[in-house]
Amino acid sequence: MNKLDSNIHIGKICLEYRLKNNLTQNQVADLTGLEPRHISQIERGLSKGSIDTLLKFCNAYKITPDIILYDLLDDSIKSSISIYDEKFKKLSKKDKNTILHLIDYFLSK
What we know:
single chain, mainly alpha, 434 Repressor (Amino-terminal Domain), 8 helices, 71% helix
C-alpha cells in the first residue's frame, strides 16, 4: 500500500470511529489537544499524523492502534493473526469481560 492509500485508510478509520462515538471534530480536538483543522486533514487522508497523534485518537475513541493499522499490514502477516483476536479487540470492555468470564467457565470444567 502506498503512502497516499495508507493516509486515506487511516483517515477513513478515524472518521468512522469519531462518528461511532458521536463526536464532532471540535470535541475530538478537546479530547486530544489537536487542532480541528489537523483532525480534518487526517480524516480526509491529507495527513496521517505521528504515532503520538495516532495514540491520541485511540484514547479518544477507546480503541487500540491495531484497529486503525491492521489493514495496512502485508497479507502474510495478517494470516498469522487470529481473526478472533481482531474481532475481540473491537468489542466493548463490558463485552470483552463477559467473554473472558465465559472462557474461564469453560476452561474450569
